[in-house]
Amino acid sequence: MKLKKCLKTIASILGVLIFISFLIALIYVLSIDYIDLDKKTIDNLGKSIQVLSEDFSSLEYNGQYGNVVKLSELPDYVPKAFIAIEDKRFYKHKGIDYIRIMGALIKDIKSFSFKEGASTISQQLIKNTHLNNERTIERKLKEIRIARQLEQQYTKEQILEKYLNIIYFGNGLYGIDSAAKKYFSTSAKNLNVAQAAALAAIINSPAKYNPYTNLDNLKARQKIVLKAMLENGFISKEQYEEAIDTPLEITLDKNDNCQSVYARIAVKQACQIINGTEKDLADCVIYTYYNQGVQNILKQSIEAYISQTENDRGVLPDYAAIVIDNQTLGVTGLIESKENNIFIQRQPASTIKPLAVYAPALEYKLITPASLILDEPINYDGYSPKNYNGRHEGWISVRKAISTSNNIAAVKTLKSIGVDTATDFLKRLNINLEEQDSGLSLALGGLYKGVSLYDLTQAYTVFPNNGNFGECSLVKKIITKDGKVLYEAKPILKKVMREDTAYLITDMLRTAAKEGTARRLNDLPFQVAAKTGTNSYQKTPHNNDAYCISYTSRHTMGVWLGNISNDFKGALASNVTGGTFPTMITKNIMKSLYKNNSPPDFEIPKTVVYADIDLIEYNTRQNLVLANALSAPRYKKREIFSIYNLPPKAENINWEINNPVENKRRSFIDRMINFIKNRKNNLRSKKRSSYNLINSALLTASSTKSSIFKIFSNFSIEFKLGFVTGCLGTKTVQQSS
Predict the structure, then answer these.
(1) Contact predicate 585/548, CB 8 Å
(2) Which of 550, 473, 55 lies closest to 293 in space, CA to CA?
(3) Residues annotated catalytic, as ranges
(4) Helices marked H in 418-516
(5) Are 486 and 284 in contact (CB under 8 A)?
(6) CA distances from residue 137 to 29, 390, 570 in whole angstroms, order as listed
(7) E strands within 366-502?
(8) Which pLDDT score is estimated for 256?
(9) Contact status, residue 128 vs residue 167, Cβ threshold 8 Å
(10) What average pLDDT does this structure show over 379-405?
(11) pLDDT tens for residues 303-314?
(12) Phi-psi category of 688—alpha, beta or left, where left has phi over 0 and alpha has psi -120 to 50?
């Protein structure tokens, strides 16, 4: 009796617990914020986004609304490969496969996990169009509800077609046609059984079965797919054996997708422009600045050198490059070794110096290109930066500091202008720093998060554009296919620095390209400005990032080689610095880009002048003053200045400012001829004056013989003194400090 009573009590308790659990589950289910099927989203899956180049040719776009293929155009075994491995009861259920759910639930209970999804093709379509990838009960319940609605409003064939056109195949590829073209260089219409099975294998885990990095994994799963197709009667025994014996040949040229990379980024920018998503761009045409010629040059230039950059562990660096048209601010070409390399934030190294340090210092008249800075060991509250070569040069000019990428000079200059000033200046150029970027390491590109190559190159367009800055873009215009204009690019430029500041930076970066860290560009037959940058890998001989940011009057371009993984295995070889391979790649790009049409010289603004500085004062006293115009050439040096920040001049100096082209040195004979001509003119003038004095004296009754003699005597003395003074030249007796 006691046992029966005990069991009855336990049963009652269990019943109450089950009832309470049921109530809790019911409340939870009812409390979920469900959403309904978005019919517009599903309908748009049959539409595509067209991306056009500068010459209106169509670009390959592999996104969700890229290449679209009709189910009726595919061989019968292609869709059946996906049904066999993903949803073998696809034609029997109404969106939810309850048998598969029970099987998955049992497996989950046994493994104490939530690994088995049991999603049907309808559920997968909903997950990819309406929901996220979270593995939660709430998302699963939403998915089930919307999948049932989907099955009620669309046929199985419609669902399958939309599914095949939107499913993700890895490497930025959406839709079976995009995947077929990328991996097998063929259309989805022409896939064989082996290829179809391979594509069906990928979607389970695009990273795990990536054809480029995990081909063996893919081949193993491909066999599972083929077996499932055979077991379900989708292929014959002969087709199975033939597919098993067919080699899986993957297109390994990962650089052939330059168009699709550009198109993908253009579509992403277009979404930001219209403040929408890809579905809002369905059936739209996006006009871009893409130039196939520029793109080919980028690809060829990278390929010409990248194989030479392998480190001693057999790893090639990651890379990215971009070219921007200075006039339109349109991105005419870009290339990257991995998706989003061009937008990943990295330490900009010394490429930040002209933007954050020297431009604001020039703008606020704290320095000139000729200003001297003492390169010496420094320690600011424990911060002791070193130069790249570990040496100190003593007094160096700002021009030399920039061209040789001197670290001490940059840190000292930043300390003078203040980090807040530098941060504000960068913000004007669309480079937003973090709160942690408040130290002097900013001068050397030591940032908390960093800057992307896209933003860095964009910022440099301010210099060839005379101090005016505007955001760059890949997108020129967006229209609907019925002709309605949604957006048209009209670059908005804002003045962020004086034009003399921009030109002085350009002039000093031209020196860097002639004799500084970017001197590999020095034999280009046109004017080019460039700044390099290199980040070391954890204080080892290896490097982590190498840059060359450069520009002409027509284009601004950035080249980056780096170690995305940030581990020792991927660290750059010690000979890969900003001044080596990135600069060599830049040179190759420029030579090809301007092969038949060199860019014009940079235009000198009216607020910039050339002047000679006194080398004696400069070298002995580190005193910057303008030289006497009559000083010997060896005692003066020509430099460029803003008219708003000229060096001081001493009194009695005959000061001249001329364009260096017009300031041609005359020979000694030319100067003597000119001197004699001037003296003859002076003599005639003085004789004429003396004659007038004599004539006046003779006409007056009070004049005497001695007075006339005195007049002639004074004239003679004055002439002789004038001749001697002219030959010796005037000496400057006052010096400026």
Answers:
(1) yes
(2) 55
(3) 86, 350
(4) 419-428, 453-460, 499-515
(5) yes
(6) 10, 60, 40
(7) 372-375, 394-397, 468-469, 475-480, 485-488, 494-495
(8) 53
(9) yes
(10) 94
(11) 999 999 999 899
(12) alpha
Q: Is there a contact between 475 and 273 (Cβ–Cβ < 8 Å)?
A: yes
pLDDT tens string 637-679: 999 999 999 998 744 333 333 333 333 445 555 656 666 656 5
Secondary structure (3-state) at 573: coil
Of 253, 255, 335, give the one whose Cα is nearest residue 291.
Answer: 335
DSSP for residue 572: B
The CA distance from 286 to 270, in Å, is: 8
Task: Summarize pLDDT for 462-490 with one digit per residue, the tens.
Answer: 999 999 999 999 999 999 988 899 999 98
Distance CA 562, CA 130 (A): 37
Identify the pLDDT of residue 661: 38
Distances (CA, A) of 419 to 346, 356, 483, 611: 20, 9, 49, 31
Q: What pLDDT is stored for residue 677 in this prediction?
A: 57
Question: Can you read off the two tokens belonging to residue 411?
Answer: 């840190």
Strand partners, 52: 58, 287
Tokens of 732: 């400057």
Tens-digit pLDDT profile for residues 232-289: 999 999 999 999 999 998 886 544 578 889 999 999 999 999 999 888 898 899 999 9
pTM reported for the whole predicted model: 0.77
Condensed to tens digits (0 to 9), the pLDDT of residues 417-452 reads 999 999 999 999 999 999 999 999 999 999 999 999
Within 8 A by CB and 6+ apart from 122, the residues are: 95, 96, 147, 150, 151, 159
Distance CA 532, CA 560 (A): 10
Cα–Cα distance, 578 to 573 (Å, whole number):
12
**pLDDT (0 to 100) of residue 652:** 37
> The tokens 């600011």 sit on which residue?
380
pLDDT of residue 732: 30
| Alpha-carbon span 728 to 726, nearest angstrom | 6
Length of the chain (residues): 737
The string of DSSP codes covering 324-377 is EETTT-BEEEEEESSTTGGGS-B--GGGGHIIIIIHHHHHTTS--TT-EEEE--
**Strand, helix or coil for residue 177:** helix
Return d(Cα 401, Cα 145) in angstroms, integer: 66
Using a 10 angstrom Cβ sphere, with 0-12 exposed, 13-18 middle and 19 or more buried, the burial of residue 208 is: middle
pLDDT above 80: residue 575: yes
pLDDT in tens, 708-724: 333 333 333 333 323 22
SS (H, E, C) 192-256: CHHHHHHHHHHCCCCCCCCCCCCHHHHHHHHHHHHHHHHHCCCCCHHHHHHHHHCCCCCCCCCCC
Q: Residue 124 has what DSSP assignment? A: H
